[in-house]
Every structure is written in C-alpha cells, then in structure tokens.
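re the bet — no i am not wrong, look at it urself. input seq straight from the record:
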Amino acid sequence: MRSKYALLQALTIAAVMLGACALPPPAPPTKPIIISAIGHGTLSNQQYGQYNQTQQKLLAMRAAKVDAFRNLAEQVYGFRLSGSTTISAFASQNDYVRVHIDAFVRGARVLEVTQLPDGSYQARVEAELPPDFRQCLAEGNCPQPPKPSADCGEGGCLPAPAVCTGVGCAPASGASLGWSSKP
C-alpha cells in the first residue's frame, strides 16, 4: 500500500514537472524607447524691439522648446522634403528647399532650458515610447491626434479620443506620438 502511495506521489510530481516544462518561457521584459532632442531659440532686437527684455527672453525660450519638439517629431516620423534648383549655363542659379513636418506630439517632457553664452536658449526634451512602437508605426495603427467631434454642444466641440488599434501602441505613461492626417 505504501509503495502504491509513493508511486502515485512520484507520478504526480513528474506530471507537474513535465507540465511546467511544456509552458512557454515568460517573455523577457522589454525596455521602453527613450528619444531626446535639442532645440535652439533666439530673438533679434531689431525684429522684436517692441518687447521688453523679459518678454524677448520668454519668446526665445519658447522658440527653443518648439524647435526641440519639432526635432523630436522628426526623429520619430521623419519629414517631407521638397526642393528645386534652377541651372543656367551649367551653374546653379537658384536653390529652393522646403522641409515639412506635421506631427502630433503628446507626453514629451522638457528636461531643461538653458541660456547659452551668446544669449540664445537651448531646450532639451525627451519622450518615452513603448518597446513595440516601431512595429506599431510600421503597421500604421498608432494613436491618432484627437479630431473635433461632429456633435458640438453649448460648451463648444470636444476632441474625440485618440484611436489605438494595436497591442501596446500607447505606453503606460500616457505619452504617445501620433501623426496628423493633413497632406
């Protein structure tokens, strides 16, 4: 009787051990993608002479932040470049280059804004993207920017919620980078 009990116990342990081996190993933890960018801003006294020193300083700081956010969006989505060159007598006469980026940036944070020795300002920003953001971007199912709802009430139009159709296409921190549907 005792040997039957020991055999049953051994078989139970073996079954549990074999069952544990049959389970797929847990997925390794993935780290979020952290991107950062730097932007610069300055003001000319000639162009903004109507503002006092403090206002000019704040405008330059704002310009640095906006430039940093633009650089951040360029890193994630790239940009559209168009241009033309006029050639006459085998020499370049006129070059026209235009860079266009239309991006929706949410969740990026300003790390620092510092004044440089020449009086201009430099801003550093960063955003945390989910580990599978590149896959989300390649599949085209990343969150889109909020669009105004067709049903506007007394308080005005409220934006529609961002759309997310892929697994992990928005990080837990609430940060997301999506693009606009404008051409």
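see?? DSSP finds three helices and seven strands in the chain. told u. also Helices lie at 2-22, 53-77, 133-139. so pay up
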